[in-house]
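hey m, so remember when u said the C-alpha cells were messed up on ur end? i reran from scratch. heres the input so u can diff it against urs
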Amino acid sequence: MEKLANQINQLAEQYSNYTAENLSRLIKHKSLSTKEKEVVLELKQQMIDAGFDEVFIDGLGNVIGRIGNGEKILAFDGHIDVVDLGNLKNWTFDPLGGEIKDGFVHGRGTVDQKGGPAAFVTAGRIIKELGVPENMTIYFVGSVMEEDCDGLCWKYIIEEDGIKPDVVISTEPTNLNVYRGHRGRMEIHVSFYGVSSHGSAPERGKNAIYMASRTALEIEKLNERLAYDEFLGRGSVTISEIISGSPSLCAVADFARIHLDRRLTWGETKDSAVKEIEQLVEGLNAKVEVLNYIETAYTGLEYGMEKYYPTWKLEESHPIVQTADRSFKALFGKAPIIDKWTFSTNGVTINGIYGIPCIGFGPGNEVLAHAPNEKVPVSDLVIASAFYAGFAYEMGRS
C-alpha cells in the first residue's frame, strides 16, 4: 500500500493545475438550482476527457460517470448547483471569474461545492492510470437541485436510475476532515385561522396574528428544551417567516402563518417534531403541515419529495469510517479528524432514507459556504483527489 500511496500522491500533485483549471471552468457557469445545464455539460466533458468508461446525464439532469464494472459499488457525490451571488459589493473579486491566484481558486461554488467534483474527476483519472480494481464499480455523480432540496437528486438516482451503491462519499466541504453525519431538518408551516371584523371594533373578531404571536413565543421556549445528542448536538427550531392576511388594513387579521426551520438531532423524527408543535396550538383553529417540494428540472422533468430530511450518522467504529481512517493514514501519515457537518447534505437521503453507508470528505472550509469571497486552496483539491483514489483502492482491498 505504501508504494501505491506514493504513486497516488505524486499523481495528485502532478495534476494540481489540471484540477484547479477544471474547477475554474466549472465556476464560470453560474448554475443555480434547476439551471445547471451548462455546468453539467462541462463536467460531462471533463469526465470524458479523463477517460471514464461511461458518462451519461439522467432524466433529472444529474451527470454520472462510471469507472470499472466490479461487484463492489462506490459512489462519489458532489452537487454542482450553487446559491446566488448576493450583494456584489461584498465580493473583492469576480464571483464567476474562476480566478486561480495565490494558491486558491476563487469564486462562487469553489467550496460549496464544485471543488469536490473537480477533485473526483482527477481521482478518476488517477485510478484509470494506475489500474481500476477488478472488483470495483465507481460512480462519480455531479448532482443537481441540492441547494433547493437536499437529497432529491439521490432519490431519483436510487429509485429511477436504479443505482444503489454500497458506499457513498459526499464531497461537500469538510476542511479535509472525515465527517460521519449531521442533524436532519424539516420545514413546517403552521397556519392560524381567525375571524375578521372592523378594525374599530377588534373585540368582534378573532385575530390570527395574536394566535401566531403567542405560539411564536412558545416555540422560542420549545427551542430551549429540545433533545440533545453527544455527537450531533441539540435539536433546534426557529421561525424564519411570518405572514398574515385580512380583508383590509382596517380589519382584524383572519389569517396568519409561520414558517419553521426545524433541525433534528438523533432520536428526533418527523412525527415527534410535528406532535410538539401540535401540542402548542391545541385548542386553536390552526393546522400544522410538513411542506412538499416539487419543481421542474432543467431537463423539463417535474419531480419532488417531502421536505423532511432525516438525521443520520455512522458510528466511528463503522467499517466505512475505519476504511476512511486507514486510507487517510496511508496517504498522509497521520490520523484524520473525524467530525460532522453543521449544515445538511445529500446524506439525508443516501443514509437517512435508504440506509446506504455515507461519509464526507471534501476540500474547503464550510465557513465559506454561501458566503462572499468564497475560495478553495489548490492544496485542498490535491489532497481530496488523492484521498478519493486511495479510498477506492482501500475499499477494493477490504
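this time it looks ok to me. The chain has two domains: 2-182+311-397, 184-296. if urs says something different then somethings off w ur setup not the seq
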